[in-house]
Amino acid sequence: MLVYPKSEACDIGLLERTEEHNRNYSNPDNDPRGDWRAGDIRNALYRPNLIYDVKTPSGKTIKPAPNGWRFSKETMQEKMKRGQVIFSEDETRLIFKIYLKDQTGRVPETIWLGNEVGTTREGNKEIKSLFSEKCFDTPKPERLLQRIIHIGSVESDIVLDFFGGSGTTAAVAHKMGRQFITVEQMEYVENITRERLKKVVGTRVKKDKLLDEIEYDTGGISKAVNWQGGGDFVYCELMRYNEAFMDRIQAAKTGKELLTLWKDIAENSFLNWYVNPAIPEDAVKDFENIGKEENGQEKQKKLLAELLNKNQLYVNLSEIEDAQFGVSMDDKALNRAFYGDGA
């Protein structure tokens, strides 16, 4: 996984500590501050101002690391006085103490192992438990998204997944108390992505005709985060414009249907800027002849698809008041609630 921060304001959260992570801490010199471990006192980047010699109590000289020390000369002296930086017994190196009492969590490692964050096999098992079959290739395990969302956000933050896929990110974000926006353009969004989120929220069912009970997704990270179902989400579809013509092009069975569709496209769609909406008789004849060639209908469909302006596949927000699109009052209200007063 590649991680990019949008700005210096990005703050990576810490992971939970366990006794396993504390086993390298000890207190061999009876430091009053308690258990500690040795940390790297070298600088990771080249810092000329941090390159200086350090004198030992017996007068020896310890040369700096190639990139320099981790601290300035003044800070180094202060940490030595406090006993946080000490010399090795042979006075050939410096030891920087990292105290256990200062550790509130643990910094995420670069390598995440399958026993910690799951595997594709685990993701497949989770999907199968929801839909009784493998209906999506290589779904991510919920534990992987749990870690990503944990270190990248806090409760009530908004998690954006622009390629929703099987809905793992949205499902985990919901279980972890985050808001989410997930986007998907493939047809399975209705049968998989949306249905998975419905299972996460859960459905009220009657029990013994007395009490209501919620049936919800108990797999994935549900137990780890004590998920009990609940909440809601809004499912919206983009309002189609030229995309509707694309569907009709693909569904056409005959050249005659395509010719009729061409006329409809010329009159009622957004065309590419270089396309003449007029349909000369010669162009009609050429179009009919193409249909007689090998794979003729596919070639005709391709030609019609090229007429359409792909930037107008859906109705733009800026056109919401245009009467020709017939946007309903309910849809206008929903868009204004989502986008704000600018809609």
Description of the structure:
The protein has 343 residues and is an alpha+beta fold. It has three domains: 19-102, no CATH class; 114-215, Vaccinia Virus protein VP39 (Rossmann fold), CATH 3.40.50.150; 242-319. 34% of the residues lie in helices and 10% in strands. The protein has helices spanning 19-22, 73-82, 114-117, 120-131, 142-152, 168-175, 193-201, 242-251, 255-268, 281-292, 296-307, 329-339; strands at 36-39, 54-55, 61-62, 85-87, 94-99, 158-161, 179-182, 203-207, 211-215. The strands form four sheets. Strands 1-5-4 form a three-stranded antiparallel beta sheet. A two-stranded antiparallel sheet has the order 2-3.
Looking at CATH, the homologous superfamily of the largest domain is: Vaccinia Virus protein VP39
**What CATH first level of the largest domain would be assigned?**
Alpha Beta
Q: What is the H/E order?
A: HEEEHEEHHHEHEHEEHHHHH
CATH domain topology of the largest domain: Rossmann fold
- What percent of residues are in strands? 5-15%
What are the segments in which pLDDT stays under 50 over at least 5 consecutive residues? none
Rg to the nearest angstrom?
A: 31 Å
Give the mean pLDDT.
Answer: 93
**Number of helices, counting only DSSP H or I runs of 4 residues or more:** 12
Strands side by side in the biggest sheet = 1-5-4
Counting DSSP E segments of at least 2 residues, the number of strands comes to: 9
**How many domains, in number, for the residues?**
3
CATH arch. level architecture of the largest domain: 3-Layer(aba) Sandwich
Separation of termini? Answer: 35 Å
Category from helices, strands and their pairing: alpha+beta
**Helical residues, percent:** 25-40%
**For the report, how would you describe the main beta sheet?**
3 strands, antiparallel
Overall spatial form: elongated
